[in-house]
Structures are given as structure tokens and as C-alpha cells.
Amino acid sequence: MKIAVIGFGAAAIGFIERIKNEGHEIVVFERSKDIYSSSISGIRADGKLFVSSEMGGDIHIDLALQKKLVDFYIDNTEDHQVETGQSFTNSSYFKKFYEKGFMPISADFYHLGTDQLKMVLYNIYENFKAFKNISFRFEQNVLSVKTVGKEVFIGDSDEAFDRVVIAVGRSGHKLVGSIIKDYPDLILDNTKVDLGIRYEVPNHIVDELNKEMYEFKVKYKSKTGYMVRTFCNNPSGFVVTETYDDFVTVNGHAKMKEKSQNTNFAILVTIQLTEPFNNPIGYGSHIAKLSNLLAGKGKVILQTYDHFKNSKRTKNLYRIQPTLHECKYILGDINLAFPRRIIESIVDFIETLDQVIPGIAYPDNLVYAPEIKFYSNLLDNTKLENLKFIGDCSGHTRSIIYATAHGYLMAESFLEK
Ligand SMILES: Cc1cc2nc3c(=O)[nH]c(=O)nc-3n(C[C@H](O)[C@H](O)[C@H](O)COP(=O)(O)OP(=O)(O)OC[C@H]3O[C@@H](n4cnc5c(N)ncnc54)[C@H](O)[C@@H]3O)c2cc1C
């Protein structure tokens, strides 16, 4: 078979890793300039790998396969150095959170760190490139794909492929959108978006927890009825901004070597609306743009927790130094940009969390906004025989390991046929 893989991220890596020895011709189209490009792949910030049946995507991935793929990434680091942790294996923590209404999520964590990821990606690429049946085409921003009978064509090219695997992640939504226009039946669901904040506290407040599990993942049904969750905990980490085409959001990461005095994590509220609503990206983008409008171009809003809770503009900070560079934020009031129900859900979450982790609700802790996690349209992979979607662009995964495993399992299904 001649197979095109569009995008070279986690899902493509899993797909190629599984199929590379089977003699099929694989052509990878990647829009980035080269493997060193700062925009290539989702495997470029933080690199926290986790093994869990409770998060990462909505498909079932065997835990043994997840661990095998974690080992694959660790094998591609320079010196196999990782930070590890296990969440909620300690039953006393489990009980403490559970008692206050939290749903603890179990997972094993392996943190590679932003500083190691470039090398990991490069090593994997070098390994694949050595195979005669695998070729890479960089600077190929694929805008359309069309199927004609048993053949598939990319863009305006007349080069035919037997199969095309779309692995463009969430950043490739334009390509997926163009395919969906031709095949609207592919969409199973598109009603969800996660909106929230990045929270930053001094390390000493969460030290014990960070040592015990590296990342504490919990969900909580707030008094507003909305589900709120923690996401992407970064012990001794850094807050960063993430630039989209027309707005900026906040994010966080941690490095293996350079450490800060603070821990940051996201607190996200899942918004799932019903018909006629069908534009979660539009809704999330509007709130992001409104936040940016208040903060100034390219900036996010920073506020102390007390002011966030009481809807007052922050003019000064007190004990905590933000890890985000001061040219990237403005002190302000997030309440001017976020709907009340979201703010109330987050405040309820933090106040309740403070009963488990004293100090989490200190008035001068830092709140950054907007943090937004978009969900891709949930796509039906059974509709088209020779055009498949893997990883985050399929809507079925949201993490490096799940995306890699999705690609791996797709390759297996090709080999079975
Ligand atoms: C800042 C950040 C930090 C993250 N940290 C973590 C983490 O620590 N742990 C974790 O598990 N998950 C993390 N994630 C999520 C994780 O990166 C993704 O879930 C995962 O990378 C998805 O893999 P993918 O292959 O579907 O997409 P990606 O890894 O995003 O790869 C998609 C590739 O397709 C290319 N592409 C896009 N459109 C086109 C096109 N039209 N034509 C050609 N090429 C195209 C892109 O350049 C990219 O290389 C993070 C995400 C972000 C944004």
C-alpha cells in the first residue's frame, strides 16, 4: 500500500512506529519547515506522559500498550532521565479528596520536560528516516484531500494514495474542516469546550502533593452544576502564553533542569451546550478575544485570587512573583471577560480545594486568563475506508500517549485487513 500521513505529531509517530517494518510505502506531509521548527508537533512543551484509563481520550487503550509507548518516548531521550509520580495510589490522599466531593483520577506520570522534547522528536525522526520505505516532505501545508473511488489525492496533486491518514492535531482544524464540508456525516459531536484559568501558587503550598504524585488530577461537580477539573500541574514550573491565529491564551509547562519557586496548574470548566449551539470554537475564541481586548494585544489578564473572587481590579501583587514575563500580562479583572457561571464554578472549586490543601485559596495566589482547551469535532472513522483520522484531530484523544496509541492501533487495523 502507498500511504500518506498528514502531519508529524504524536499520532503519526504511533502509526509509523507500528507499520514501519511491514513494507508499505509511507509518505509524511508536514507543514513545518523542518524537524527543528518550533511549531512542529504537540510534542514540544512539557512532555508529561501518563498511563491512565481515566483520562487522555475517549477510546479504550490497553494500559500495557500505554506503558510500552511511554517507554518508547523515554528510550528516545538523551539519558533516559524522567520525573515520575503516581496519583492517588496513596489511599489517605484519595479519601481526603473524595470526602470533600472531588473525583480523584488515577494515573502514572512520566515527565520528560520541555528541554528534552526537541531531542526526543529528532531521535524518532532520524530513526524513521533511515527506513527506505518512509519519506518526509516538509513545508507541505495540506489544504484539502479528496477521495476518488479507491484512490485518495492530496491538494491539487495527481499523485494517488491507497490510504490517507490525517494526523494534524488540533492545530490542523482548517484541513479537517475542509474535509468535513465534503463529508458532513463524519461529525458525531461538536458541542464542548473547556474554559478556565491557569492558577499559580508558591511551591510550599503543594510541596507534599507534588512529591507524592507529581500531578494531582481531580474532577469536581461545582454548585453551578458544571464539571470543573485540574489539568497540567507543573511543579516548579513556568506559566507561558500560547498564540493562536487571532488570540492569545495562557498555558504552563515545566523543565527538567531549570526550576521556579512556583507550581501552576489549569482549572477548567467544561461547557457542553445543546442544539442549536454548534460552535464551541467560536464561543471559546470570543471569550479569549474579549480577554485580549482588555489586556492589550498579545497579552493575558493576571489577577490575585481575592480580587478574582470579589470582582475587583488587581493593581498590585503581594508575595508571589509571576513566572510569566511581565511583558505578557496586564493586571486586571477577569470578571469583565468571563461569564459569571464560569467564575462561580472556579471559585467554588478553589474554596473547596482549600479544605484539602490549606493555602490554595490564599488571597494573593495568582489567576491568569484565559486558558482554553478546544475539543476537535468528534469524528466517525467508520464512514470512509481509505481516509482515516488519528489523534487529536479525530476528537477521540487529548494527550501524547492516547494520540500515539490511536495511531498505533490504526496501523494495526490496516495490517489486519
Ligand atoms: C502547549 C501544549 C502542551 C502540551 N503538553 C502535553 C503534555 O505534557 N502531555 C500530554 O500528554 N499532552 C500534552 N499536550 C497535548 C498533546 O500535545 C496532544 O494531545 C498531542 O500532541 C496530539 O497529537 P497529534 O498527533 O494528534 O497532533 P500534534 O502532535 O499536534 O501533531 C500535528 C502535526 O500536524 C501538523 N499539521 C497541522 N496541520 C497540518 C496541515 N494542514 N498539513 C500538514 N501538516 C499539518 C502540525 O505541524 C503538527 O506537527 C500539549 C499540548 C499543547 C498545545
Describe this structure in words.
With 417 residues, the chain is of the alpha+beta class. The protein folds into two domains: 2-77 and 112-188 and 378-416, FAD/NAD(P)-binding domain (3-Layer(bba) Sandwich), CATH 3.50.50; 192-374, no CATH class. Helix content is 29%, strand content 28%. The chain contains ten helices and 23 strands. It has helices at residues 10-19, 63-75, 91-99, 114-129, 173-182, 203-213, 280-295, 305-310, 340-354, 400-416; strands at 2-6, 25-29, 48-51, 83-87, 102-104, 107-111, 134-137, 145-148, 151-154, 160-161, 163-166, 187-189, 192-202, 218-221, 227-234, 238-243, 248-253, 262-272, 300-304, 329-331, 366-374, 378-379, 387-389. An eight-stranded mixed beta sheet has the order 5-14-15-18-13-21-19-20. Helix 1 runs parallel beside helix 10. The longest helix has 17 residues, at 400-416. It is globular, with a radius of gyration of 22 Å. It starts with a strand and ends with a helix. The mean pLDDT is 94. Flavin-adenine dinucleotide binds at residues 6-12, 29-32, 39-43, 45-48, 140-142, 167-169, 171-172, 175, 242, 251, 391-393, 398-401, 403.
